[in-house]
Design goal:
Layout: E1 10-15, H1 23-35, E2 41-46, H2 48-55, H3 59-76, E3 84-87, H4 92-102, H5 107-111, H6 114-122, H7 132-146, E4 151-154, H8 159-177, E5 199-202, H9 231-239, H10 257-265, H11 269-280, H12 286-309, H13 313-345
Parallel strand pairs: 1-2, 2-3, 4-5
Helix pairs in contact: 2-3, 2-7, 3-12, 4-7, 4-13, 7-8, 9-12, 10-12
Bound molecules: tryptophan (TRP).
Tryptophan binds near residues 12, 15, 144, 154 and 158.
């Protein structure tokens, strides 16, 4: 425990590779990740195992999405020189820890998890989802705890998972490390727990609306502006943002979707205030505001497009595979250490790992 003192606190967060990342991801979590890379020791996880829980029949697609998500990360400025990229399936300690934690969570507690329920609904999984699907919620606890993370920057939709992770961390530390149940969450590691109780950190905009003006931005709903969209696409999509306004001289409602985009992406607070006043008085049309929003978004993502280009083509993909392999070694050093501590606490200490065989 003592060797942790003086080190930077840790972040673990990540994404399931399901397709390209969009502006909702940026304001919800990516922006925090980029910003916190010096202050925290960051681990960014590609949850490719989780992708198999609903798409087991599509391994090629999952592999492609895995590479694509790393491109998105590199594009936004998540920096492999400062942070560790963790490919979930290359870190066996996570899978082992999932088993150990699964014993500490009542089955019905997992199944009541509202994020799982929403996903079953949204993806129309009915009652024919795989056994692995609800297990991923336990796996997510293991992702976070394997790195003994202090902070987890996530979108609002992930808070239910975080709550379960916090519960299972406390329970483990009570049961196996003698941490008193009266301990404050911030003090679990100091009190001798293997796991700190991690804190979630939601982005500056918890839930970004999609261009349909109704639902949250989501790839599957077709209402997303992607971080990799070209300028022309951004212009076209912002032009479609639903406002419900009849004419340019009507008083506009600054609670509408368009103004959520103004507030999220126009950086200058003075200009935001000015636009809001003009809009409310019916002195500026939707078209003008949309154009400014479009330019602001393009200014944000243009450097991302540029950085992404460095990873185009088969050579780019090869570099990413190499990066993931190199980082897996760093990730395993931490996760193996955690697993050894957890197993020791559970009286499962029978000497060091004997896994030396590499085919
Ligand atoms: N469930 C998250 C998502 O789909 C991805 C994820 C997996 C994650 N493990 C995690 C996020 C651990 C934060 C921490 O977006």
């Amino acid at each position: 425990m003592c060797e942790d003192i003086g080190m930077r606190p840790r972040i673990l967060t990540g994404d399931t590779p399901t397709g390209r990342l969009h502006l909702g991801h940026w304001v919800g979590s990516l922006e925090n990740r980029v910003r916190l890379q010096d202050e925290y020791e960051c681990f960014f996880l590609i949850a490719n195992m989780h992708a198999f829980t609903t798409r087991a029949e599509k391994p090629e697609e999952i592999r492609r999405d895995t590479i694509e998500i790393v491109k998105d990360w590199l594009a936004v400025g998540m920096d492999p020189e400062r942070s560790t990229f963790v490919l979930q399936t290359e870190v066996p300690a996570i899978a082992e820890l999932t088993w150990l934690l699964a014993m500490l969570l009542p089955f019905n507690r997992v199944m009541r998890n509202p994020t799982l329920k929403e996903e079953i609904e949204a993806k129309q999984l009915g009652d024919h989802y795989s056994f692995g699907f609800p297990l991923y919620a336990v796996g997510q606890c293991a992702d976070i705890l394997a790195f003994r993370a202090d902070l987890v920057p996530v979108g609002e939709d992930q808070l239910a998972h975080l709550e379960m992770c916090r519960e299972v961390a406390r329970r483990f530390d009570h049961l196996y490390c003698g941490v008193p149940t009266t301990t404050e969450d911030a003090d679990y590691a100091r009190a001798g727990g293997v796991f700190p109780v991690p804190q979630p950190k939601v982005g500056r905009i918890a839930r970004l609306v999609g261009i349909d003006g109704v639902q949250k931005m989501s790839k599957s709903l077709g209402n997303a502006i992607f971080l990799s969209d070209e300028a022309g696409e951004i212009k076209k999509k912002t032009g479609k943002i639903f406002t419900g306004r009849q004419s340019a001289t009507d008083p506009g409602d600054i609670k509408n979707a368009l103004f959520q985009f103004v507030n999220a992406f126009i950086a200058d607070p003075e200009r935001r205030r000015e636009l809001a006043e003009l809009y409310t008085r019916g002195e500026v049309g939707d078209g003008t505001v949309k154009q400014e929003v479009s330019q602001a978004i393009d200014a944000l993502v243009a450097p991302m497009r540029e950085r992404r280009r460095a990873y185009d083509g088969p050579a780019g993909e090869a570099r990413i595979v190499e990066l993931l392999h190199a980082h897996a070694a760093k990730a395993n050093a931490v996760a193996e250490d955690t697993l050894a501590r957890a197993k020791a606490a559970m009286k499962l200490d029978f000497g060091a790992r004997t896994l030396m065989f590499v085919p």
